[in-house]
Automatic annotation (TrEMBL), chains A, B, C, D:
This is Nucleoside hydrolase. The lineage of its organism: Bacteria, Bacillati, Actinomycetota, Actinomycetes, Pseudonocardiales. GO terms for biological process: purine nucleoside catabolic process. It comes from Haloechinothrix aidingensis. GO terms for molecular function: purine nucleosidase activity. The keyword Signal does not apply. PANTHER family: INOSINE-URIDINE PREFERRING NUCLEOSIDE HYDROLASE (PTHR12304), URIDINE NUCLEOSIDASE (PTHR12304:SF4). GO terms for cellular component: cytosol. Residues 3-301 form the Inosine/uridine-preferring nucleoside hydrolase domain. Keywords: Glycosidase, Hydrolase.
Length: 319, 319, 319, 319
C-alpha cells in the first residue's frame, strides 16, 4: 500500500509514523506537516527526528500550513507536552525537509503516482483542504482517505461535541468531507480503544529495533504523564485501520461538519437515521464517509506491536 | 404522585394520558396543551376526547401557546395523521377546557399544591418556558420535570441531530434546561425502545376498560399506518419512567441546547466527558439533567399494559 | 392618544414617562416593567417613584419578566448608574404596583380598550414577546408599536452591531418583528440625535412643574456623569415620535433580527435594497416596520421641553 | 505603481483591467483569476480576450481556485450574462495563461519584487486567502490591498446584508481581514457611485484606442441589459481608488467578517463606535482596514475616462 501521511507530530503521530515505517508492504511516499498539536516548525523537527531515530530511508517531509483557515488557533500541549513528544528527547534531526510546501508535495506525489494513493491524515485538515480547494480534480487521485478525526456517538474531547483535529480547523474539515474523496472516519469512537499497558510498553522500549524502542519510550512517557497503566496508541490506530481494515467495523453515512454552532462547532454530524428502522425514510444526503463505529482492539494492538519492532535483531546465541 | 402533563396530543400523547389516568397512585392535577404535532386547538380537542373516551374524572385541561417562541413552526402530521390521532375517530368531546391560559393554569396548580409537583412534558416546551421566563421562582415548585425530548447518542429524528419536540421550539428548550428545574431527559435513546406488538395490541383493543380499548386501537392504527408489527408507546414511556424510575438507567450530565448550528439546531449537547476516564478533567458545567441512557423495555411495557386496562370489568361467570 | 408604555426605568425611561404624563391628549393606560437597564424590581420602584415625583394620577404599573428569553442577561448600569436613575435620589414610592403580571396587564388593557392602542416599548421586548407568543391574536389590538431599539445604518452601541434593548433579548425582538404588529423602529439612527444642553437643563430643573423639575435634574445628572454639555433625551424621543410623527422621517422596510451571528447577534437587518435603484428587484420580504431614518431634532426637543413642564404654576404677580 | 490584480472577469473587471492597462505609471505585474461571477475557466478566457482586445503587452495571467473554501458556490450571471461579459463578444484569445496556479503566481510575484506590491482584488478572496494561509509571512510583501468587497452602511446586494464577492467566500474574506495586510475596503458604499452615462459611453465606444472602444462597448451593453442611462464602472472604481487615493474618503476601522449569521453571513461588520462621540470608549479591536465611505464621483469618472482611451490615435489631419 502506497500512502501519504499528514501529521502534526505529536506523541501518537510519532507512534503512527513508526508503525507506517515498519508495516509490511507499506510504502510511505511523503509526509506532510501541519499546524496542530504544536506549531508547524516543531512538527517538522519532530517528524524528522522520529525518522532519524527509526533509521528510516529518505522520505520527503514537507512543511505545510502554519495556521488553520478561518478558525482561531488552539494547540494541545497539555496532551503532548511543550515539544509535542511528551518529554521524550530525540537527537536534533540530521535530515532536512524538502523545500516545497506541503500542499505542493501532496499535489506532485498524487500526480506522480501510477495509481491513486491512500492518504492518512492524523492532524487538522488544513493542508488537504487547501489542496482540494486549489485542485479539486485531484480528489480522483486519492483512493481512500483515512481521517483521524471527529466523533459519531462518543461526544467531543477538546470541546463538549468536537474532536481536537476537526475543532482546530472546522472549515478545512468541511471542505474535505464535501470533496467527494472516499473517507474512512476514524474518530473518537475508536481512538481511545486501542491501548498498550505499561508492562508491554516497557518490554517494547527494550527492543533492538530502534522503532520499537522509541515507541516503547513514548508510550511509557505518556503513561507517566497521565499516571495511567493503559496508554492509547491514538493516531497509530488510524494507520493500523488503513492497513488492516479487517479489524474495524464501519458503516457508510452522510456526514457533515457543523461550522456554526455555539456548542457544536467542529463536530461531525452523522446521519444515523438510515440505521433506525422507522426513521430510515428521513435520512438525507449521500454517503460520503465510512464511520468506524468499533474496532477489534486486541487485533489492532497485536498488529501494531508486531510491526513496530519488526526489525529487531535476532538474539545472537554465542557459546 | 401528583403530576401535571403538558401535551400536544398526538397518538402517543393519548397513550401517555391513558396511562397516567389509570396508573395506581397517580393524580393528574392538570393537563396543558401546546402547539406541536398538530395545532393547539386540535390538541385541546383530542385531549378532551381522550378523557371522555377513558371516562376520566374532571381534570383541568388548558389551551396554551399556539406557536413556538422564535422558531418557525413545524408539525408532525406525517407521524400522527391530519387530526393527530392517527385516524382513530373519537366522539366530539362533551367536556370543555378551562378558560385560563395553560401558562396560568401551570402557575396556579404549582402554587396551589402543598408540595412540589412532578411535571411531565410530552410536547414542545413553549408553555413551560414562558412560565419560567415570567415566574422563574416557580422552579422551586417543581419536584422533577420528566422531559420527553432530545437525544444523547441516538442522533435526531426530525432533523439529522434533533428530536421533534425540541426542534419545534429550541429556545423554549434552552430556557427550561437553564432554569434550574431538576430534569429527567427521556429522549430518543429510550423513546423507540418500548414497543407493543400487534397481537398484544389486538388483545388490548378488546379490553372492557375503555382506556385499554382505546390504547389498543391507537396502537393498531399506528401499526397499520407504518406497516410494522412493533409499535412504540412513545410518550407513554416517559410517563412510565416518571412513575417507575426503577425501570430506567440514568446518569447526570451537563446538557445544553444548541440554538445556532446549521445542522445541529435544536439538538441536546450532552457533556459525556465526565464518563470518559482520561477526559474527565475537561468536563465543564454543572449537571442539570439526568439523561435516560436505557430502559428496561420489558418492564415498562408490562407496567404500561397492566395499568392501562386496570379498570377492566371482571368477567361475569354465569352458570 | 391612548398608550401603553413598556419600560426598564432607567434615566431616559424616566424622561419618557414624564413626557407621556404631561403631553397633551395622551392618556397612559398602563405601564409595564421588564428586566433591562436594571433588575425588574428596581424598574418597578423607579417607575413608581417617578410617578410620585410627577404627582401623576393612578396608572396601573405592573412587574413583568425578570429575565430575557434565551439570552444571557446583560445590564446597563454603566449608563444608568447602580439604581438606574443616574444617582438622582427619589423618595420611596408611596404607590404600589398592581398584583397581576405585566403580560396579564398588557392583555387586559388591550382587550378592555374600545379601540386598538399604541404601545411604546422603551426596553427589551420580553414582555411583549411573551404576550404575542401566548396570545398572537392580540396583535390586532395594537394600532402601532413604537419600538425604541435597533439600528439601521448607525451600527451598534452595546455590541459592534447591536443596540442594547434588542441585544438584551434578541429572541423577543424576533418574535415581535415577525408578529404582524405595525412597528415604528426608533433606533440608534435617531436615538442620540435629540439632545438638551446643560443650560437648558438647568433652567428646566427650576420648573415649578415637578415633572419638568425632575426631568431637568435627570438631564443634569447625566451631563455630569458623562462630562458632556449635550445630553440625549433618549427614550423620551421615542415617545415624542409616537405623539408627533410629523417630526420624524420613516421608510417602510423588511426588517429581521439576527439571532445567530458571532458579531451581529441582536442586530436589526434592514433590507435597504428597495431604495437602491438597480437592486430594487432583489429586495425580499414584506415590509414589517417603518424605520426612523432621521428626526427633526429641534422640533422634538421643543415639543419635549414644552410638554414636560406644562403644569408649571403661573408666576403669581402680587401688587 | 506596481500592482497585482485578482479578478473574476466579469464586465466591470474588464473595465478595471482596461483602466489598469492604460493608467499612467501603473505596471500590472500579474493577473490572477478566481471563481466568482462565472467559473474560473471562463474568467481566464475573458481576461485573456480583454488583454488581446486592448493590445496589452505580455502579462502573466494565472488560473486560480475553481471554488470557494467552505461556502456553497453562487454565480452572478444575472449581472454579467452567461459568458460574464454582458454579451459583448470578443475574439478567442490568442495568448495563453501561465501554467502555474494563481496562488503560486501570487507568491512568486510578491517574492520577486524588490519592494512590497499593491494588490487589488476585484473578486472573491479565495486565491489570496489560500496564499495567506499557506504563507502568512507574505503579508509583509503586500504594501496595500485594495479590496472591492463588503459594505459599511449601504446594506448588501447579493443578500440583504452582504456584498457578492464576500458572500461568495466569507471564510476567505475572514482570513484576509485577519491577516494583518493593510486593507482599503472599497465596498458598496462607493461601488455604485461612479457612473458613466450612455452618451459618454457611446462616445467612448468610438475611440481609436482599442481599450477605450471596448470599455465603451461594455458600458453600452450593460446600459441596454439593465435599461438604464447611467452605468456604474464598478470594479474599475476600485482600481481608480488604488491609483488616485486623493479622490476617496476613508476612515480606519476594526472590521470583521460575519461567518455565522442567518441573515448576515458574509457581511462586513464595521465598528463605527469610535466615531460616535459618547460610544467611543466601547469600540474594540485594532484598526485593520480603511473603509471608503465616499468618493469624489466626478473625479474618478474623469480619471477613468481619460486613462482608458489614453492611447487614442491623434486624428490625422490630411490636406
Ligand atoms: Ca495527530
Ligand atoms: Ca407528544
Ligand atoms: Ca429604556
Ligand atoms: Ca469582479
Amino acid at each position: 500500500m502506497d500512502v501519504i501521511l499528514d501529521v502534526d507530530t505529536g506523541v501518537d503521530d510519532a507512534l503512527a509514523l513508526l508503525l507506517a515505517l515498519r508495516a509490511p508492504d507499506v510504502n510511505v511516499r511523503a509526509i506532510t506537516c501541519v499546524d496542530g498539536n504544536v506549531d508547524v516548525d516543531s512538527v517538522v523537527t519532530n517528524t524528522l527526528a522520529v525518522l532519524d531515530a527509526a533509521r528510516a530511508p529518505q522520505i520527503p517531509v514537507a512543511r505545510g500550513c502554519p495556521q488553520p483557515l478561518a478558525a482561531e488557533r488552539i494547540h494541545a500541549q497539555q496532551v503532548h507536552g511543550c515539544d509535542g513528544l511528551g518529554g521524550v528527547r530525540l537527537a536534533d534531526p540530521g535530515r532536512e525537509p524538502v523545500e516545497a510546501h506541503a500542499v505542493e508535495v501532496l499535489r506532485r506525489t498524487l500526480l506522480d503516482s501510477a495509481k491513486p494513493l491512500t492518504v492518512v491524515t492524523l492532524a487538522p485538515l488544513t493542508n488537504v483542504a487547501v489542496l482540494l480547494t486549489c485542485y479539486p480534480e485531484l480528489a480522483d487521485r486519492i483512493d481512500r482517505m483515512v481521517v483521524m478525526g471527529g466523533s459519531a456517538g462518543f461526544g467531543g474531547n477538546d470541546s463538549v461535541a468536537a474532536e481536537f483535529n476537526l475543532l482546530h480547523d472546522p472549515e478545512a474539515a468541511d471542505i474535505v468531507f464535501r470533496s467527494g474523496v472516499p473517507i474512512t472516519m476514524y474518530g473518537l469512537d475508536a481512538f481511545y480503544e486501542v491501548t498498550v499497558d505499561t508492562e508491554t510498553a516497557h518490554g517494547l522500549s527494550g527492543s533492538t529495533d530502534p522503532a520499537g524502542a522509541l515507541a516503547g519510550s513514548l508510550l511509557l512517557a505518556q503513561a507517566q504523564r497521565f499516571a495511567t497503566r493503559e496508554v492509547t496508541i491514538g493516531d497509530a490506530g488510524a494507520v493500523a485501520a488503513a492497513i488492516w481494515p479487517e479489524h474495524i467495523d464501519t458503516d457508510p453515512h452522510h456526514v457533515r461538519i457543523e461550522l456554526h454552532g455555539a456548542h457544536t462547532r467542529g463536530s461531525t454530524v452523522v446521519d444515523q437515521r438510515a440505521r433506525r428502522g422507522i426513521l430510515a425514510g428521513r435520512a438525507s444526503g449521500a454517503h460520503n464517509a465510512r464511520v468506524v463505529w468499533s474496532v477489534d482492539e486486541a487485533a489492532l494492538r497485536e498488529t501494531f506491536l508486531t510491526a513496530v519492532s519488526r526489525h529487531a535483531q535476532p538474539v545472537s546465541t554465542v557459546a
